[in-house]
Amino acid sequence: MTSREGIPMQKSVEKLADELKATVKRAQDIAAKAESEGRDFTADEASEVDELLKAGKGLKAELEKAKASETMRNALAELGEGVAPGSGGSKAAVHPRVKASGGTDWADTMLKQVAGPHGYKGILASGTVAVSVPLNPEPVRMDVPVLSIRQLMPNVQNTTGRFAYMRQELRQNNAAVVAHGALKPESKYQLKRYDDRVRTIAHLSEPIAKQDLDDVSLLRTFIDQEMRLGLDLALENEILNGDGTGERFTGIGNVSGSQMQPFDTNVLVTTRKAVTKLERYGYLANAAFVMTPEDWESIELLADANGQFYYGGPQAAVNASARRLWSAPVVVSDAATPGTAYLADFSQMQLQVRQEGVLDWSENVYRPDALGAGVGASDFQTNMVTFRFEGRFGLEILRPSAIVEVDLTAA
């Protein structure tokens, strides 16, 4: 292309970028075809790929030259983040515990650009005037606690919504040496059948403007993460503290038949005696401690008379995944009760999973005061969307004696 004066005109950045992408794609297609057929390039394919590579290098150099000109810089500002494919965006900060619990990861195709070249459109409150406001493409989330109790136990897929299991209530071993012809002693092992069902854990979001969901594509991922986290927090609380009333689980802290370890001398002595209680029944192989972050902090800060940390101090904290107490892993949870820890063999319990957390949405929610006191409207009428996140779970504790409740507080 030439100007009226016959001087060659530079191609636009956009056109150069499109040509470069098309050239690279053609070469990649040829290579992919050869690879899928399990062969090397044919002579014609090798020649074409070589020509494409040469053309690509030339286009790349021309593209860089175009970017350097002031005219192209202005055009680039109008285009936004540039033309290089895959140059923008980042993965959302999906907490590993959320992923581990089955969390979706829509963030593989994360937001690259949601507004013009000078910033991002904010998520606006009602009545706020829209201005050009820079917005980090990843919403800043509040502190996310580590959730890991459900990962300690087998997760079983439930297909009916109900489940049953046998729990041993009594063990009385009376085996002894017996003379010829004498009556053999009788041992007693009492089992009780437990029939249970999964329970629904769910919550709703506040109404969210549909325009915000359209304008900020990362918002849907953000909602998924936060609502999944809320469900996992509730599930973890039920596993530890469910009291068996109404729709609640019977959790680790309220199951009958568990063992107790009162405070003895200090925290280290007390927790070691709890280990002995599990060792007596052969449960220690898959055991772990669960306690609050503050209680674990107090243990890590224990020091001898010379001020030396028993657990290595800051150096030991570098590898947090290796934290152990008397060889058993330590898991911290905000659902735990301060001053109380649990040492449990989590292989002796199961989490029944009928439905992992699912995110749904609706525009059919009616709100009596949507437009003011006594003036109702549906989400559809006000262009709002409400999200629902729910899952269905049940807890089996097969052997309560595999749980030791540990008192970490001196009388």
Outline:
The protein is of the alpha+beta class and 411 residues long. The chain has nine helices and 15 strands.
Secondary structure: elements and pairs:
Blueprint: H1 13-36, H2 43-68, H3 70-79, H4 96-100, E1 155-157, E2 162-172, E3 188-197, E4 199-204, E5 208-209, H5 210-215, H6 218-241, E6 259-261, H7 267-279, E7 287-291, H8 293-300, H9 314-317, E8 324-325, E9 328-332, E10 340-345, E11 349-362, E12 366-367, E13 377-378, E14 384-397, E15 403-407
Parallel strand pairs: 1-11, 6-15, 7-9
Antiparallel strand pairs: 2-3, 4-14, 5-14, 7-10, 8-9, 10-15, 11-14, 12-13
Helix pairs in contact: 1-2
Estimated radius of gyration: 31 Å
For the largest sheet, list the strands in their spatial order. 6-15-10-7-9-8
* CATH homologous superfamily (4th level) name of the largest domain: Major capsid protein gp5
Biggest sheet statistics: 6 strands, mixed
Task: Assign a percent range to the helix content.
Answer: 25-40%
What is the C-level CATH assignment of the largest domain?
A: Alpha Beta
β-strand percent reads 15-25%
* Beta strands, count: 15
**Residue windows where pLDDT falls under 50 for at least 5 positions:** 1-9, 75-92, 102-137
> Rough shape?
extended
Number of folding domains?
Answer: 2
Order of helices and strands: HHHHEEEEEHHEHEHHEEEEEEEE
Structural class: alpha+beta
Pfam family, one: Phage_capsid
Coiled coil: 17-69
InterPro entries: Phage_capsid (IPR024455), Phage_capsid-like_C (IPR054612)
Main location: virion
